[in-house]
Structure prediction request, 130 residues.
Amino acid sequence: MKISGKFEVNLNPLDSFAEGVEGNTLGRMSIEKTFHGELSATSKGEMLSAMSPVKGAAGYVAIEQVIGELAGKQGSFVLQHFGTMNGGEDKLILEVVPCSGTDQLTGLIGSMEIRIEAGEHFYDFEYSIG
Prediction:
């Protein structure tokens, strides 16, 4: 199955344990999202980021717990993020953490792509429930 929809995201800084050195900046943020469409859900999670002193070079990882309804099925699952940016080339991987689906989403596997168009956030979610 492949679905698409919109989402809103709210990021807020959190206290960090580690500090960057020699021009690298490390950060930690809370994530809160509301998904619309066939994925009607909310999520909460945390993101860790690193920005190098070179403009446009950065990376981040995140974990978010998604709770709600996917194509009429109730439950929750966890998304894991891995992203890098380098000179205008972006790489972003979002995958469902194996065996993280609950209730009617038990057995969920999949990956999500995020698009930002005219300041709005969209998702494309390819998944199956085994």
